[in-house]
Amino acid sequence: MKITFLTVFPDLVKHVSEAAKTIDPSHDLLELHFFNSTTRPTPEELEALTRAIHDSDIVVLDAMGGDPQWIRATRLTLDDFDGAVLSWGAEFIDKVRLGSFSMATARNAIEKTDSHADMKHMPPDMKSMLGNTGAQKSIKGILNSAKKMIPIITEMGSSTDSGGEISGINRVHATVKGMRTAPKFMADAKRFSALGKAFHSMREPQADFFLRHLLHFDGGHPEVVVPTPPEALAPASVGAPWPSRHFSTVEKYRQECDAPHGRPTVVLLYSGLTYPYDSNDVVRALMDSLRKDCWVVPISIVAAGGESLEALRTLLSEAAPKLIISMQGFRIGGGPMGGDVDSSTAMLKSINAPIMHPLILSRYTEKQWNESRHGLGQSEAMVMLMLPEMDGCLAEIPIAAMTEPAQNTTTGVVTSVLVPIPKQIERFARRVRGQLRLSTTPAPQKRIALIGYDYPAGEGNLLNGAFLDVSESMAAIMRELSHRGYQTKTPSGQQLLNDLLAQAVNSPEYSQTVRPKTYLRADAEQDLPHPRAWQSMYETHPSPSDCPMTTPEGDFIIPAVDYGNVLVGIQPGRGSVKMATTDTHDTTRPPHPQYAGFYTWLSQIWKPDVIIHVGTHGTLEFLQGKENAVSAECFPDMLIGDIPHVYIYYCGNAAEGLIARRRAHAVLVSYQPPVMQPTRLDGELAELDDLISEYRRSVTLMPQTSAELLEQVHGRATALHLPTDLDELEVELARTKRSLVPMGLHVWGQAYTPQEARLMVRGMAEHGSFDGELAPALSPSEQAKVVGKVLGEVSDSSNETSLPEKSVEPKNPEDEALTQGVGYLASWARNLYARLQHNDEIEGLFHALEGRHVDARLGGDPIRNPEVLPSGHSLYQFDSRRVPTPIAVRRGRDIANHVCSAYRASHDGADPTTIAVVLWGLETTRTQGETYAQILSLLGVRSLTPRRPNSPHWEIIPSNELERPRVDVVVTICGFFRDLFSNLIDELDDILHAVAALDEPADINPLAARTRQQAQAMRQSGEPEERIEALAHARIFGPPPGQYGSGLTDIVDSGQWQSPEDLATAFTAASGHVYTRYDHGSHTDGLYDSRLKDVDLVSQTRSSNEYEITDLDHYFEYLGGLGNSVRAAKGTSIPILVTDTTQDEVYTTSVGRAAAKGLRTRLLNKDWMEAMLAHGHRGVTEIEKRVTNLVGLAATTDQIDDWMFDEVCDTYIDDPEMVQRLSTLNPHSLASMAQRMVEAHDRSLWNASAEHLDKLHDLTFKLDSSLEAGTQEIDYP
Question: Which of 6, 707, 1173, 1185 has the CA that lies 20 to 30 A from 226?
Answer without folding.
Answer: 6
